[in-house]
Amino acid sequence: MVEIIGKKVGTTGFGLMGMTWRANPPPFEESFKAMKAALDGGSNFWNGGEFYGTPELNSLHLLRDYFTKYPEDADKVVLSIKGGAKPGQLEPDGSRENVHRSINECLRLLEGKKFLDIFECARVDPKVPIEDTISYIAEFVKAGKLGGISLSEVSAQTIRRAAKVHPIACVEVELSLYSTDILENGIAQACGELGIPIVAYSPLGRGFLTGQIRSFDDIPEGDFRRIQPRFQPDVFDENIKLADEVQKIAKKKGATLGQVALAWVRQHTGRNGLGLVIPIPGASTESRVQENVKEITLTEGEIAEIGEILKRIEIKGDRYPKAVMHHCNG
């Protein structure tokens, strides 16, 4: 176990996005099984979003119903929720009015079934100084309604500015074998210097590292990945080569591709000046959760071998379409 905002959490977290933000969300009862499996496996750092779905069905509704059914689990889970987007849009709005609206809506939907341990605004609103946005969230921390403040898709400069206003519980950014940007652009370094844990989202490369996506046609209709640059037919075959090479290491190790991918993210903890790095893989089935929480450890030789693979294989395409990349590393 490690700690975030002074609370003990497992070294692998749990992402809730796929349970409500998809064309055909699974029934809550099915999701509850996966959530129980995560908690039973030690993954008690849960990450959701106000906009992960619709105003009528998102992470908050799922969590409210889960903790209504399992009230004994509320104190076991450390919950982080993203919000702060304009209602009905995915545009960041860091104004006091919208930040307060978003937090109050999250609290309303939770109905007191679970304390909101951490809140973060999704991305950074370029029209509002980060210092101001953080101060608006901090009002709820001071009032005892929130446990802490996180940041999402931020630059190293933004992290340093925000940390001067209020302690930062963690920074949520993308990190996987397919997305190593934060290790090279100063973001991870800033977190390490300030002692801020990194919460690594999409640690399985949005499916590349699960073994389930082998071609563009494997991506379901309506799935966001169908418009993501790295999954396009003209680059897919090149990009899947990375997963194929890492799969060879997994096979020799007697582990799954996903387990090796998650171990690679976790092994950054305490290395090269970094603090805690915790991946938050998403999974909507009990079996997939059980695979993810079965942690393995990479040897120094395996870490070096993966490093050579990363040097050799260049990933084609951005993490998101241009319109979305505009709000990344803000």
From TrEMBL:
InterPro entries xref list:
Aldo-Keto_reductase, NAD(P)_OxRdtase_dom_sf, NADP_OxRdtase_dom
Keyword Secreted tagged: no
A Pfam family annotated for this chain is Aldo_ket_red
Q: Does the keyword Iron-sulfur apply?
A: no
UniProt GO MF annotations: oxidoreductase activity
Keywords assigned:
Oxidoreductase
GO cellular component terms, semicolon-separated: cytoplasm
Domain (NADP-dependent oxidoreductase): residue spans on this chain: 13-310
The protein, known as? Putative pyridoxal reductase protein
Q: What is the lineage of its organism?
A: Eukaryota, Fungi, Dikarya, Ascomycota, Pezizomycotina
